[in-house]
Amino acid sequence: MNGVHDMGGMHGFGPVEIEPDEPWFHHEWERRVLALTLAAGFLGEWNIDTSRHARERMPGAEYLASTYYEKWLWGLERLLLERGLVPQAELDARLRDTAAPVRRTGHPRLLTAENVEPLLKKGGNARVNETVPARFAPGDRVVAHNINPTGHTRLPRYARGRAGVVDRDHGVFIFADSHAMGHGPQPQHLYSIRFAARELWGPEVSERDAVYVDLWEAHLDAA
Amino acid sequence: MSDAHDHHGHHHDHEDGSRFSDTELRVKALESLLVDKGLVDPQALDALIDTYETKVGPRNGARVVAKAWTDPAFREWLLRDATAAIASLGYTGRQGEDMVVLENSPKVHNLVVCTLCSCYPWPVLGLPPVWYKSAPYRSRAVIDPRGVMRELGLDVGEDVEVRVWDSTAEVRYLVLPERPAGTEGWSEDELATLVTRDAMIGVARVERPDGKESAK
Known about the structure:
heterodimer, A: 223 residues, alpha+beta, Cyclin A, domain 1, SH3 type barrels, 5-stranded antiparallel β-sheet, 8 helices, 33% helix, B: 216 residues, mainly alpha, Nitrile Hydratase, Chain A, two-stranded parallel sheet, two-stranded parallel ribbon, 12 helices, globular, disordered N terminus, disordered C terminus
């Protein structure tokens, strides 16, 4: 979707400010949002791509006005409500009264403390152990599709319709664009595409420089 | 839209102070609800927080870099198969399942960003800092990397090629900075103390403790 989350190349957001000795969290509630989001994710009711798309669906003005973990909270609430894990009425009741009664449902894939370390160490499985023929090879010239899907895509606007060169083939991966939308993993080759800075931004930038974008085969055509 | 959404949108009308407390209340309500419904285990939440507050962080990445500087065979392995080389030091898992290491040199400077969200190599750098996730960095790193780095005190010469890596998939990137001059004979442990998070993202060089920039 052409949302405000797709920020590459925009102007007007001001300077980058690095906070010296930044703490991992600035508020206790940020710790809780991180942990709640990860723990709820392990229930397996959605995948990481769905989760990213949920945050992108936050209305644009609100997205820009929110801090990082506020966006995570918004995305988590959306997914819990949409998957029916939390009824809206129960959430509303809890917001008014922290002792409001709820129906205990439990979950067969509840994340327990002893599973935290092994599951985090194991990580996700975006790479797929399947043999899928590769359409492109390093050195091939390609063009990124000019697409404007209303759903999730990992093809940023600044690269759409632009020509680049395959830098490397990362192997076969779940296709985030379809996986996020519930259309299955559609495993395919993922490539790092080198776009000359001038191809993306015009003649005023350095002719030496380049931006590398990880794109799936479904994003690309031969140039 | 739901009440939950109206409520959330509403809080931005407040001043900063009450906005925070409103969010805090929402989080408390959601956590208590999920615990009572049996959808999250409070001890698992504590274990998750403990992991990212005490067990992972840029010290891990610094060990990878220092080893690459002192062990040519490891450096070669790291550049060829970063996932396996990094795993050999015990750093694996979520948001670092597939790693690529980018080596800086006198001719090439690498910089990592995620323009679409906040993708970042957690096992070796920990959770990303606020600036990495911020609109200014996400918007500008790809269109004006030299300007961003200059503002942060890093001047990259016109004769050096700047490569910006936008983390748009599940591959995670770590920059292998140049080893600072004047550190010949330093041990791996000593070198690791010099390597910063920002150098492994690409917005800083690794400097000697006397503050001198590494020789270009």
